[in-house]
Amino acid sequence: MSTPEPSVFSRIVAREIPAEIVFESDDVIAIRDIAPKAPVHLLVIPKTEQYRDVAELAAGDPALLAELVRVAQQLADEQSDGEFRLVFNTGERAGQTVFHVHAHVLGGHLPEGSLA
Ligand code: 5GP
User: Where do we find the motif Histidine triad motif here (predicted)?
Assistant: First the structure.
C-alpha cells in the first residue's frame, strides 16, 4: 500500500508551502487562513496529522485539544479583542476540506448571528 500524501498543513509545518505563521510550539502551529472569512481568521493546527477531525482528537488526545483552545484564546488576545468564534468543520457535508484537524479562530467584527 502506498503512503498517503501529507496534508497541506503538514506541508506548511515542513515549510514546503509558504504560510503566515502566527504561532508555533512543539505540538501546534497557527497560520492565517488563505481565504479569510472574518477580519481575523486563523487556523490552529496540531502538527500531527493523525487526527482527521475534532471528534477523533477529543477521543485520542484531549490535552492536545485543550492546547488548541488555549492557543486560540492567546491569539485572539494578541490579534483582536480577545473574543472569538471557534469552528471545527467536521465532515465533508459540513464543509471540511482538509482532513487534518484544525480549529478556525474567527475574530474582529463578525456579522451578528452569523455562523460563518
Ligand atoms: P476546512 O474547510 O477544512 O474547515 O478548512 C480548511 C481551511 O484551510 C480553509 O478555510 C482554507 O481557506 C484553508 N487553506 C487551505 N489551503 C491553505 C493554504 O495553503 N494556506 C492557508 N494559509 N490556508 C489554507
Answer: 100-104
CATH code for position 24? 3.30.428.10
CA of 16 to the centre of ligand 1 (A): 15
Q: Using the structure block, give the residue that is written with the C-alpha cell 490552529.
A: 44
pLDDT tens by residue, 38-70:
999 999 999 999 999 999 999 999 999 999 999
H helices of the chain, where? 8-13, 54-60, 62-79
Cβ of 33 less than 6 Å from ligand 1: yes
The active-site residue, picked from 41, 102, 104, 109, is: 102
Q: How many domains does the chain have?
A: 1
Reported pTM: 0.95
